[in-house]
Amino acid sequence: MTAAGRPSVYDAVGGEDAFLALARAHHRRCLADPELEHPFSGPDQHPQHVERLAAYWAEVLGGPARYSRGCADQTHVLWLHSGNGEIDDLGRRFLACFLLALDDAGVPDDPELRACLRAYMEWAVADVLAYSPPGAEVPAGAAMPRWTWDGLSA
Ligand code: HEM
Questions:
Q1: Superkingdom, according to UniProt (predicted)?
Q2: Where is pLDDT greater, at 154 or 105?
């Protein structure tokens, strides 16, 4: 629950198991995409990619701080996606896979929740793509984003 007594976005999605199902569905969609399949099929993929992605999204959307406590931080996430050159098309595909995965994973079809999740992912894709020019410098100690019903929380 949030301070105002309203469920967090994390709770509205369905908590930990729902985020795992969402990350799994999203990964499946990425692997089925002819372009996105390449970056996700490299030999050095983290074996727990899906679990880590689920923990990351859960934390950003108001869940427990499992990613920043047990996995890595925002600087690592930005660094992982940086310096790949012009990948705007991959960003569009990533967003499309996320929106389809919401249905695949059975995330509640509440219009306010869906709009909130879409706005978050549009923002997050743009944030990652901002570091795609070769040589882009990722800031050290970048704070984990927090996304609420009202958008990015300062
Ligand atoms: C342009 C679109 C994107 C592409 C092509 C992409 C690709 C990737 C790849 C290849 C990995 C590494 C997988 C591995 O080695 O385990 C990864 C990891 C990850 N990505 Fe993305 N990604 C994109 C956008 C995003 C966005 C928008 C977010 C956040 C909302 C995100 C969050 C993450 C996280 C949390 C990880 C796991 C980091 C970890 O293992 O600690 N990605 N991504």
A1: Bacteria
A2: 105
